[in-house]
Design goal:
- Chain A: It comes from Novosphingobium mathurense.
- Chain A: This is Xylose isomerase-like TIM barrel.
- The complex is a heterodimer of chains A (379) and B (155).
- In chain A, helix 10 packs parallel to helix 13, helix 11 packs antiparallel against helix 13 and helix 12 crosses helix 13.
- Chain A folds into two domains: 269 residues, Divalent-metal-dependent TIM barrel enzymes (TIM Barrel); 95 residues, no CATH class.
- Helix content of chain A is 46%, strand content 13%.
- Chain A has 379 residues and is α/β, with parallel strands linked by helices.
- In chain B, 42% of the residues are buried.
- In chain B, strand 4 and strand 5 form a beta hairpin.
- Chain B is built from two helices and twelve strands.
- The radius of gyration of chain B is 15 Å and the shape is globular.
- Helices cover 6% and strands 39% of the residues of chain B.
- The chains are: A alpha/beta (379), B mainly beta (155).
């Protein structure tokens, strides 16, 4: 297994103009021992949709100078772009194909599509992927899990056709088993009760052990953002789509028995427990051959008690996930994707998280769990 | 995201055309981790000292072009608002704002999304009402700023 960084991790430093794109690439190449992979979000890192020929030359110059390799480019699609109609699958495919050509121009080997990208679009783009020698990976992002139709349809297509051009980009958030402490802290700053945070962690533990009053199957086909919106609407109006009624009712009851006089925000905090995928590590091992690259998602690296200089994300099962990928024979890249910075962005810049330090800590963990030896390397 | 930094704190000023104060403006950034096609940007919830300034009196200056109303921005389907770039939100208000500090309640409406949503057809007909949190991207709550008016400047 190889390691790299999605420059998504440095979004806040870029927003505040503290790190340029070159600074970000230099950080990966020079300050992260054993790492050489670069992943970008096209609409974050580039002048989009055409960064220009001068940029392309500069890009390859940086790759050479800092010893880095373009691995995966993350692309999006916004179906209301044309404003007078909702994009058809053909139009989504056209956008994807244009983004794939951009990825090729910048030397990337893989393109990550959103978890919501229809498989029909990926299949329609397959001939272009072959022509460009690119692999397309669908992101598997919490609360979606490896179990279920979205993953199965890609695996079946790959098995039936024998192609290795379509695959998966697991986001390590799917190995999360409780809400991250930095999200709970942010909710408490906004007025949520400490009991709500405790109840959310408790309910997460029960869901993980199969002791919860409901099943998660109904929620795992939704994106986390959409699920939050639906749950908030349910709390306010008592209404939701039929499939969500059972988990939402149970969530509400759990909140009312664990939090004194719960407010709207307290319901939302307890609701974070159902955003956990609780995906199976065995299935990760079995599907390792379909993995294009991984998003090493994390929200907060804290020092492991009693182990100075060693770090963990206490809400995500990294050890289990890395072991499963290793056992399944995965040889590709795990690219760090730090996302916890957003949970301190209600504060002043001085109180926000340090992305550079968080990523360095994450790489300490990755090297340790994967077994990457850098003793001979001059950092 | 970036709650307290979506408006640059020293950017509030009155706009002057031919010596006359026609309104006011502020510098803004996108409430996301990426840029978007400009057409997806549908305007702002903007309440200053208790007065609402709807999208009909707003215009948007970006990519080195003169300010455009959101009806025109809607047609910019191939133009991109890049993540790095600051833009200016202009508001038509003859006489502008009074000197001193103002309370600004603010929410950006960008109908970018992760794929297809149940609201797609409805938002083709008309974009969501600003300030409701719908289509507000990564900052789904209204943020309050206290900003002091700077020297007026020619648009």
């Amino acid at each position: 297994m190889k390691i790299g960084v999605s420059l998504y991790s440095y979004q806040q430093s870029q927003f505040f103009r503290e790190l340029t794109l070159e600074d970000q690439i230099r950080e990966v190449g020079e300050n992260l021992p054993g790492a050489d992979g670069i992943e970008i979000v096209d609409e974050m890192s580039l002048r989009y949709p055409d960064p220009g020929e001068d940029f392309v030359r500069q890009w390859f110059g940086w790759m050479e100078k800092y010893g880095t390799i373009p691995v995966t480019m993350d692309v999006s699609f916004d179906v209301l772009q044309f404003r007078d109609h909702v994009m058809s699958y053909e139009e989504v495919t056209e956008r994807l194909v244009r983004d794939m050509r951009l990825a090729k121009r910048l030397g990337f080997s893989n393109v990550r599509v959103l978890s919501t990208c229809p498989v029909e679009v990926m299949i329609a783009a397959l001939p272009e992927a072959e022509r460009l020698d690119l692999r397309l990976g669908k992101e598997v992002h919490q609360p979606m899990r490896l179990e279920g139709r979205q993953v199965q349809e890609i695996v079946e297509f790959a098995e039936t056709t024998g192609t290795d051009r379509l695959g998966l980009v697991p986001d390590f958030g799917i190995f999360g088993f409780r809400p991250t402490e930095v999200l709970l802290d942010q909710y408490e700053r906004r007025g949520a009760k400490a009991e709500a945070s405790a109840a959310s962690v408790e309910l997460s533990a029960r869901l993980r052990e199969g002791r919860a009053p409901f099943d998660l199957d109904d929620v795992t086909n939704q994106t986390a953002g959409n699920l939050r919106v639906a749950y908030k609407a349910y709390i306010a109006t008592g209404e939701c789509e039929p499939g969500l009624a059972q988990p939402f009712t149970a969530l509400k009851e759990f909140t009312e028995t664990h939090v004194p006089e719960p407010g709207e925000l307290d319901y939302v905090v307890v609701g974070e427990a159902i955003m956990q995928s609780n995906t199976s590590l065995d299935l990760m091992r079995e599907l390792a051959g379909y993995v294009v690259s991984c998003h090493g998602k994390f929200n907060n690296m804290s020092e492991i008690p009693g182990k100075p200089g060693c770090f963990q994300d206490l809400a995500i099962d990294y050890e289990g996930a890395i072991d499963a990928l290793k056992a399944g024979g995965f040889k590709g890249y795990v690219n760090t994707e730090y996302e916890g910075q957003r949970y301190s962005q209600d504060r002043t810049r001085a109180e926000m998280m340090d992305e550079v330090e968080q990523v360095r800590r994450h790489h300490e963990m990755l090297r340790r769990l994967i077994g990457i030896d850098v003793t001979g390397e001059v950092a | 995201m970036f709650d307290n930094y979506l408006i640059r704190s020293d950017s509030l000023r009155n706009d002057v055309i031919d010596g006359e104060v026609v309104g006011f403006s502020m510098a803004v950034r996108i409430a996301n981790y990426r840029g978007v096609f400009l057409s997806l940007h549908t305007g702002y919830f903007l309440e200053i000292d208790g007065t609402d300034y709807p999208r009909e009196v707003q215009s948007f200056e970006v990519n080195g072009k003169p300010p455009r109303g959101f009806d025109e921005i809607k047609t910019a389907i191939n133009e991109h608002w890049d993540y790095d770039d600051e833009a200016f939100l202009h508001v038509r208000k003859p006489g502008g704002l009074l000197p001193g500090e103002h309370e600004i309640r603010f929410q950006q409406c960008v109908i970018a999304a992760y794929g297809y949503l149940p609201t797609d057809e409805e938002w083709v007909k008309s974009p969501p009402k600003t300030g409701t949190g719908a289509g507000s991207d990564k900052t789904p709550h209204i943020v309050t700023y206290h900003l002091t008016l700077n020297e007026a400047a020619e648009v």
